[in-house]
Amino acid sequence: MSVLVEDVSKSYGSQLALDKISFSVESGSIMGILGPNGAGKSTLLKIISGYLRSTYGSVKINDLQVDPENPEIKKFIGYLPENNPLYTDLYVREYLGLVAGFYKIPNKNGRIDEMIEMTGLGSEVFKKIGALSKGYRQRVGLAQALIHDPALLILDEPTSGLDPAQLVEIRQLIRNISSNKTVLFSTHIMQEVDAVCDRVLILNQGKVVALETPENIKKLTYQKIRKILIEYNEPVPVQLVATIKGVIKAEQLDTNKFFLYSSSEDLRPVLFNHAVTNKLTLLTLHEQESSMEHSFLELVKDERLES
After folding, report:
1. Amino acid 305: pLDDT
2. pLDDT for position 153
3. What's the confidence (pLDDT) of residue 248?
4. Averaged pLDDT for residues 69-76
5. CATH number of the domain where residue 164 is located
6. Residue at a domain's end among 159, 185, 211
7. Please, which residues have CB within 8 angstroms of residue 181's CB and are 6 or more apart in sequence?
8. CATH number at residue 242
9. Are residues 171 and 239 in the same domain?
10. Structural domain count, the chain
């Protein structure tokens, strides 16, 4: 199920939370939405889900206009909000039965069994939701979002607060779900985007700052800033390496070890020649690979290294 977002803006009084957001998501793909706190991620997902009305712009799902007053569109959407509101006094099966009743699902018990198996809740069905761990509560939230078999799944911070083992399990579950659904999810975890997503939308202060594949996001910032680890066999003044042609910043790690930041040119030949000229011996000269976390920080920070 395809998603088309066109010039979506959202204002709260004088505060502009989203500013002319436009993008599309192809059917059967996974898009990750990244951004610092207050960037507008949750607001955007609420608008796409039909929970919140935009101030300007439109959202279409398979050419159908999303409208909070049109309940028909909700049949196609599964939504897990960030705070994962659950009835903690209900048992797992009891809660899923309640949600299935809202959607008037035929063969309700059979569908509940499918969701319990899909989300790995079999060992927890006889517990009240309030007694579950954070990881299993997230599984219950995913089960309720999927129980009506939506074509579009929207997940707001689905792995927030999970321990490493739970995170891996939920990540794998999202991968499995995406085999026949379009998935939109927001996260603060860079590794999630790198491991799971086909494309990444990065928001900052309500605006789109990047929309690319994870690999291209890394290349985008890599072309702007390169980071090189350099180590000598003796102490070297930081001023000596900071003034090397092409170095825009030198970060001293030890008396003989530095991170050097440069523009897109390859500094390694320059650094080697500089060492020879100054009768220094290089022990390490290694260009760091760009990571998703580094790329994210480069794209959303206000002051760049060049300044």
Report:
1. 36
2. 95
3. 81
4. 85
5. 3.40.50.300
6. 211
7. 1, 28, 150, 151, 152, 153
8. 3.30.70.1560
9. no
10. 2
**Per-residue model confidence as pLDDT tens digits over 257-295:** 998 888 667 788 899 999 999 999 999 998 876 555 666
Range of the domain at 275: 221-300
Torsion over CA of 17, 22, 26 and 29, rounded to 10 degrees? -30
Asked whether residue 180 falls in the same domain as residue 258, the answer is no
Query: In degrees rounded to 5, what are phi and psi of residue 250?
Result: -120, 125
Chain mean position to CA 225 = 22
Place of tokens 């291209």: 216
